[in-house]
Design goal:
Layout lengths: L48 E5 L3 E2 L9 H27 L6 H14 L3 H11 L20 E5 L2 H13 L1 H15 L2 H24 L1 H13 L5 E3 L3 E3 L6 H13 L11 H6 L6 H15 L24 E6 L5 E6 L7 H7 L14 H9 L9 H12 L4 H18 L11 H8 L21 H31 L6 H15 L22 H19 L10 H4 L6
Helix pairs in contact: 1-2, 1-3, 1-4, 2-4, 5-14, 6-7, 6-10, 6-14, 6-16, 10-13, 13-14, 13-15, 14-15, 14-16, 16-17, 16-18, 17-18
């Protein structure tokens, strides 16, 4: 059967265009290069595409000698088999009406949709196309190329549902990318994350009183990026080991793909803890992810750390997944992805996870909701988001920080995640649905349709993040004015200078977490300080404050007099 069949037959017409003009966004116009045993820096490696159905047949076209014609033939065979299965299901339901009326309507509508556009056949062929390529720039991502798509389904009905869901969500994925870029360019959001990192630092400093020995071990590890030598699992020894899963993965990708900018710009965790305002938003996301694993429940891919288990374990209320919404998009039904019985099958199903990390469970209630609303979904609702927000809560975070962190996590995955990874990334809905459990404002679209983003970015920014930054900046201004006034009274002794400065920062730092870290680097307690030395430390602190505030220069205009402190001997 020719692929150029009329629309009313079993393969929709591509409007007289050849498959070579449709499959792979024009990439098939190139001649296929010879397969090499190893990719070179700057080139995407051979990316795995796989489509397996019912555990019986792998429909992937991946041989070195496979041509476009081979792909075309296999895609047609797969398509015909899928439509045949749909026909059988429709006929079976029709034989049992009215009992199977809903099933009959569902399967009929699914078939009609599949045959309505060539895009669905095109996407099926893309999922099957794993012919070896080693061409720089192949695929849309400038570094990673094509997305890894290792898909497996129980039957052809699930394949059909996944195809329709993926294609119909394409406008949403484009909008998600635009939103992710907005997040990355938002200085207010970046400032809030800077504050959250400072809060983590303050939480660590508090361990000095409650867990002095552990504090010592933690700071040694944070300053070296390596775990200490320790006993684990009885008498087994763990040697000094690099930790930080995302940091290591990004370094690995940087070396493999020849893009050193993928690496974090801090040398140790302590560097970013003590001066987070100096680092990029992406570095803060990577750090906050890795520090979550450092202080949280031990994960099998990480070494044991001195901070392990200090963050409380997640509970079922943290992991509620939306399964239905009302007309306004508000959550009306849920199920937990953390059952008390720790039933992994139930927990994975609640999150919508399928047979592989790149396949959704099309029968899961959360997936059905997403398909109904044309929401982009892929890897399943994100437990990483739950763990990171639990960490933010442990560090004393506020709603603005939860909102900022959730947005930043999503943006990082959408823009920076290694497309060649075995694990698919989490979409906006898969992040925000879990963030909702921590008070983050999130609703699905009230009017389901193509390409509607389920998140009002500007409204959330105005409601939470901008007022929080304004509050921090006002508190900062107050601190400047207070210190300037007290310094200019010209009556301080060295002891008074230390005491007044110390009291000021202790009072103000809980109110300005964005810049709270500066005073940690200044010792106000040394008895040998002269009056001039003590006051100089205050000036040093103010200079550090100015460095952090420099990143927010477009948000606030501070009077120059508020930053001019006169010092004298």
């Amino acid at each position: 059967m020719s692929y150029l069949t009329p629309i009313n037959e079993r393969i929709p017409s591509p409007n007289s265009r050849s498959i070579a003009e449709n499959i792979g966004a024009g990439s098939t116009a190139r001649s296929l290069p010879a397969v090499t045993s190893r990719f070179t820096p700057g080139q995407p490696k051979v990316i795995q595409r796989k489509l397996a159905v019912a555990g019986e047949k792998d429909w992937t076209v991946s041989g070195e000698k496979d041509t476009l014609e081979t792909l075309q033939n296999f895609a047609e065979m797969a398509w015909i088999e899928m439509v045949d299965v749909l026909d059988d299901e429709i006929n079976k339901a029709a034989a049992d009406l009215p009992a199977q009326q809903e099933r009959h309507q569902q399967m009929t509508a699914l078939k009609v949709t599949l045959l309505s556009s060539y895009r669905y056949f095109d996407q099926l062929a893309k999922w099957m196309d794993d012919r070896p390529r080693n061409v720089k720039g192949y695929g849309k991502h400038p570094i990673y190329g094509r997305k890894q798509q290792n898909r497996e389904y129980n039957n052809w009905i699930e394949v059909a549902m996944a195809l329709v869901g993926w294609v119909n969500a394409a406008p949403g994925r484009k909008q998600e990318k635009a939103l992710a870029n907005e997040v990355y360019q938002n200085p207010e959001l970046d400032a809030v994350l800077t504050g959250l990192v400072h809060k983590v630092r303050l939480k660590i400093e508090a361990l000095k009183d409650t867990h002095p020995q552990r504090y010592l071990e933690i700071t040694k590890e944070l300053k070296s990026n390596k775990t200490l030598i320790r006993s684990i699992k009885g008498n087994e020894k763990q040697s000094e080991t690099l930790y930080g899963h995302y940091e290591k993965e990004m370094s690995k990708a940087a070396d493999e793909f020849g893009h050193q900018e993928l690496k974090v710009t801090y040398n140790t965790k302590w560097d970013i803890l003590t001066n987070p305002g100096a680092f990029r938003l992406r570095d803060k996301v990577i750090f906050l992810h890795d520090i979550t694993e450092y202080f949280g429940k031990h994960q099998p891919w990480n070494p044991v750390t001195a901070g392990q288990h200090l963050i409380p374990v997640d509970n079922d209320a943290d992991a509620m997944v939306t399964t239905d919404v009302d007309a306004t998009g508000e959550r009306t039904a849920t199920e937990t992805a953390l059952t008390k019985e720790k039933d992994k099958v139930k927990d994975k199903r609640a999150r919508g996870m399928g047979l592989t990390t790149a396949s959704r469970d099309e029968d899961a209630p959360s997936t059905k909701l997403a398909r109904r609303l044309n929401l982009p979904v892929w890897a399943g609702q994100s437990m990483t988001t739950v763990r990171m927000l639990n960490m933010a809560q442990w560090a004393g975070g506020r709603p603005a920080e939860f909102n900022a962190l959730a947005q930043a996590i999503f943006a990082f995955w959408r823009l920076e995640y290694n497309h060649t990874s075995d694990f698919a990334y989490h979409t906006l809905h898969e992040v925000m649905d879990m963030a909702k459990n921590f008070g983050v404002t999130y609703k699905t679209p009230p009017n389901p349709g193509h390409g509607q983003l389920p998140y009002d970015y500007q409204k959330i920014n105005e409601q939470y993040i901008r007022p929080y930054v304004d509050e921090m900046l006002q508190n900062t201004t107050n601190l400047f004015q207070s210190l300037e006034g007290q310094i200019n009274t010209n009556t301080w002794t060295s002891d008074q200078a230390r005491r007044i400065a110390g009291n000021a920062v202790r009072e103000i730092t809980p109110k300005i977490p964005m810049i709270a870290g500066w005073w940690q680097n200044i010792d106000f307690t040394e008895a040998a300080d002269t009056r001039k030395q003590a006051l100089s430390k205050v000036l040093q602190g103010i200079n550090l404050l100015q460095m952090d505030l420099g990143r927010l220069s477009n948000l606030i205009q501070l009077k120059s007099s508020a930053l001019q402190v006169n010092f004298w001997v």
